[in-house]
Specification:
Length: 261
């Protein structure tokens, strides 16, 4: 690496046409894309919610179905952003060489990476909003506070898109992403409170869960769904923003190194 690889990002509004290009391409497959991102979390929510929910008492002052639904919104947005940043981002960078074509215009790599993060976050926003609509249809939340979960979905998307792009910058092929999903995404889904409270874990695992971004997302989502202001909301938002900014910078450094070879 040289010193230019570590330079701070220099961003401009030129990222927007790239984001717009991704939007126009996605519109052609919008229906199956939305269905694909919606089916998995809704199946989890309905299957486990009605199945385990009939056996379990209330959790945190809400039914298990509602408890699970709040975690499912965060899980869905995490997955949506991760898949877009990893598989679709890698395809545009490596397989289709879309980035190469874009970089032959007056656009910097910094803007290209930013557009990838914002596009993945946009897809996570749509995924989270779709799951929230199902929650409202099922009557699991009646509070207008739950609408704050929509901007929260965007923030979750920004954090996990930035983290995902680090792996995209390092990946030699698609198979590499299985390590990320097996060693990072799946453990977060199990440790961070999607299916049961983090307090049920041993203390050492609670400490690990406490530094993971999905835990902070769920700690914001669950009170909002119940109609209350989340305790330590600014702390949780700050952690998610920190993950976003640090991961964005790290991914940008790695992309600069990769594409300069």
């Amino acid at each position: 690496m040289n010193n230019r690889d570590f330079a701070l990002p220099k961003l401009s509004l030129r990222f927007f046409p790239i984001w717009q290009r991704h939007w126009l391409v996605w519109k052609k497959i919008a229906a199956p894309s939305i269905l694909g991102h919606l089916a998995d979390p809704v199946i989890y929510m309905l299957g486990l919610g009605y199945g385990l929910g009939s056996l379990l008492p209330t959790m945190g002052g809400m039914s298990y179905m509602a408890f699970l639904a709040a975690g499912t919104v965060c899980y869905s947005t995490m997955n949506s952003a991760s898949f877009e940043a990893l598989y679709s981002g890698f395809a545009r960078m490596h397989e289709q060489r879309t980035w190469e074509a874009i970089l032959n215009t007056p656009v910097s790599l910094d803007d290209v990476v930013l557009s990838e993060i914002l596009w993945a976050a946009t897809k996570s926003l749509m995924s989270g909003a779709a799951v929230l609509a199902v929650i409202w249809v099922l009557g699991l939340s009646h509070s207008l506070m739950s609408l704050w979960m929509i901007p929260l979905a965007l923030l979750i998307g920004l954090a996990f898109a930035s983290l995902g792009l680090i792996m995209t910058a390092l990946a030699p092929a698609y198979d590499f992403f299985m390590y990320y999903f097996t060693l990072v995404i799946t453990p977060m889904m199990l440790l961070c409170g999607v299916f049961f409270p983090v307090t049920q874990l041993p203390e050492s695992m609670q400490v690990i869960a406490g530094v993971l971004p999905l835990t902070h997302a769920i700690d914001l989502a669950r009170p909002l769904m119940g109609g209350t202001i989340p305790p330590q909301a600014l702390l949780h938002i700050g952690v998610l923003l920190a993950y976003t900014l640090i991961a964005f910078y790290v991914s940008l450094v790695l992309f600069r190194r990769r594409l300069s070879r």
